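Assess this one:

_____
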Amino acid sequence: MNVNYFLTPRTVRYYSLVNNELPVSRVLFVLHGYGMSARRFLEQFEHVLAPGMMIVAPEGLSRFYRKGHSGEVVASWMTSDDRETEIRDYLEYLDALYQLVTADGQKKSLILGFSQGASTASRWFHSPKCHHKGLILWAGTFAPEKLQKIDSECFVWNVSGNEDEYISLENHHQQTQRLLNLNYSVREVVFNGRHQIDIGVLKSIMDEFNSETK
């Protein structure tokens, strides 16, 4: 049996929030986790939206029914099957989205990857076609194949709840240390909570990002 591949166009979907009180100068890309809805995920970020800011939630390329055959439709970034092909496909999609959103070259971008989206975000963060200014790993892990020493300054926030059911505090601390050893500028954040987005913590990170990139 042969495995064969060919490229074919497809339509992708993303959701966005924009505050037009000022010209948009900041873009926050938020990448959802496994089995989540990009639209519902974006709804959590409405209270972070500030003047001159856009928040963009790309949707994973693989959709499925959460309960098997019906009900809410959710998405995933990839599975373990044919993973290299899936990674290549979603990176090309995200690169194209970046070019679309930042076409004027005047916007500074930050990526937040939640859970499974953290590995996706860390791969995209190092795309040669994009110029992201920072990365937020939220309750997720940095893609292991991208763990390499860097020469330029990169801002990374490593965030997790102290009761996260998927990531232990020990693993969280270890990830911070690995990134520090590779010359990343890392802020470690631990909040009181589980596997979730904490808007208060996110607002603090956005304030810091805005001050660092003025």
User: Anything to note?
Assistant: The first strand starts at residue 14 and ends at 18. Helices lie at 38-43, 83-101, 116-125, 169-181, 199-212. Residues 74 and 185 are 34 Å apart (CA to CA).
